Amino acid sequence: MIPISKTAKAVFILSIIDVITSSVPANWMQIGLLSSSPIVDKMQSDQPVGELSDSGDMLPSVCSAVPSLTNRQRSVCEKLPETVEAVPFGTKQGLVECEYQFRNDRWNCTDNRDSLRIQSTLERGSKETAFLYAITSAGVVHTVTKACSSGNLTECNCDREAHGGDTPEGWKWAGCSDNLRYGVRFARKFIDGPDKDQLRKTGEIRNLMNLHNNEAGRRAIAKLMMMKCRCHGVSGSCEFKTCWRSLPKFAEIGQYLKSKYDKSAIKVSERLSPRRQPRYRRGAKNKARKLPVNKKSLVYIQKSPDYCNDDPKAGVLGTAGRRCDADSKGRDGCNFLCCGRGYKTQVVVQYEKCKCKFVWCCKVLCKQCRRRKHYHTCL
């Protein structure tokens, strides 16, 4: 079972309750928005919570602590409570990667640090919303899959479906393949559940957008899965080789999805589009397309706001106060990041150790060197 402290459980629970009591509909992604306020967890993990399932059995504590679960999600939680506990960790992994990938963009994905801003972004239906859904969906699958193969969950284990099979190349499937199949299957049931239910009721394209981007995140992992092999034989020869499937690093998934965001995000609408209408690409003419589109692409339904200027109503911080690179012509450059408003420069004098030498015996002597550093900040 994934180690989870009492504080982490409390954060998980209170984060959801905070969403439920707000005016914005509860969203699974916000499970991972960890609060920075001090929390005292009085719930003991070995104490019954006192809520019964439909079958009359006592609900696992994680299920009863989340009153916003749909019937579909509650059913999954009753069967797989340990896996459900991994959801906030996977969501947080996705949000952290989002901040890294957008660290040099005008929108830097720090919305998750404020509940009102993240709610505004999630409601918007923009390209940034699409990326958030994809990266957090991928984060949940990645965390669950990794926990399975590492033995941290008792509800799953390694993927041994092809175990022992031979291939034309002469090697065998063996070892502990990461169980991506389980992670994806869980996410489609638990993560996609609310949007699937809502889609059946209303047929809203927004629910279809959410489901599409969730799937795009999962397919990113499947595309980047690696095959690792080990040779067996006398004196290190490779007379016999066993191979298994392994998860990619999550940074690679983030980079892949960021590339999708930059190069091939598609605006869709319910309106019929002209025949053979080209996909909308960043920098190209803004034309809407009707679903379906490539399942690996990110899709959105609304234009992104102007992230240059502060707009509290839209939940936009603006770029004032952001640090930039005056010498760069890229996105981290002051010309782009400051949106033409200019920037101020601060000169800081720092003393650092330099010209270090080893003196026998046994110490290192260094000189103190004076360094002038220039820090540029958008106006």
Distance between the termini: 49 Å
Shape: globular
Report the portion of residues in β strands.
5-15%
Number of strands: 8
The main pleated sheet reads as: 3 strands, mixed
Structural class: alpha/beta
What does this structure look like?
The protein is an alpha/beta fold. The protein folds into 2 domains: 87-318, no CATH class; 324-378, Wnt (Wingless and Int-1), C-terminal domain (Endo-n-acetylneuraminidase fold), CATH 3.30.2460. The chain contains 12 helices and 8 strands. It has helices at 6-20, 61-64, 71-79, 81-85, 87-101, 115-124, 127-149, 180-190, 193-202, 205-224, 250-264, 334-337; strands at residues 172-173, 226-232, 240-246, 266-267, 299-300, 323-324, 343-359, 363-378. The strands form 3 sheets. A 3-stranded mixed β-sheet has the order 1-3-2, with no helix packed on it. The longest helix has 23 residues, at 127-149. Residues 6-26, 30-50 and 271-286 have low confidence and may be disordered.
Secondary-structure map:
Elements: H1 6-20, H2 61-64, H3 71-79, H4 81-85, H5 87-101, H6 115-124, H7 127-149, E1 172-173, H8 180-190, H9 193-202, H10 205-224, E2 226-232, E3 240-246, H11 250-264, E4 266-267, E5 299-300, E6 323-324, H12 334-337, E7 343-359, E8 363-378
Parallel strand pairs: 1-3, 4-5
Antiparallel strand pairs: 2-3, 6-8, 7-8
Helix pairs in contact: 5-7, 5-11, 7-8, 7-10, 7-11, 9-10, 10-11
